[in-house]
Amino acid sequence: MDLPGLIANNPILAHPVLVYLLSASSTSIANISAYCDALAHLPPTLVSLDVIGRLLRDTTPAVDVTTGGKSTVADVVRSEVLGRFISHSLGWVEERERETREDEESGDWSGGGDRVEIEKAVQNLCRFYGSLIKAGMVDITSDAET
Asked: With contact defined as beta carbons under 8 Å apart, do 145 and 123 qualify?
């Protein structure tokens, strides 16, 4: 299944599909882990941030990937996706900045990152993280969470 494509091209449909995939009793823990991995590796686009944000507020019952016990979609996404998603997003921004810097130094403008795209990703990621703090999903006094 192409979750990144679904999220990028149809975020309105992506949210309920992901809720179903993460909460269906027939979904194996291995599949739930694969879906979480796909979510964690999304680029920091506005659409991706919106879908992750919706999932973080979703109280639909789900299976906890770690314990196999009962949980919610929000709990699964927070424990299995959020930290890796933010880490991957920061890596994505750093990689684009490196590519752009290399292209500028070599005079090659055919590849690499686009400054506007990078700036927009940073801005969106900061807003997303700020909304997590406001919602109490991230404790800024905890070094582990920040």
From this structure: no
Q: What size, in residues, is the chain?
A: 146
- For the segment 88-93, the average pLDDT, to the nearest whole number, is 96
Q: Look up residue 26 and give its two tokens.
A: 């027939």
Q: Which helix (H) or strand (E) element contains residue 37?
A: helix 29-40
| DSSP result, 57-106 | T---EEE-TTTSSEEEHHHHHIIIIIHHHHHHHHHHHHHHHHHHHHHHHH
- What pTM did the predictor assign? 0.87
| Short-list 32, 8, 10, CA closest to 21 | 32
* Residue 21 token pair: 């995939």
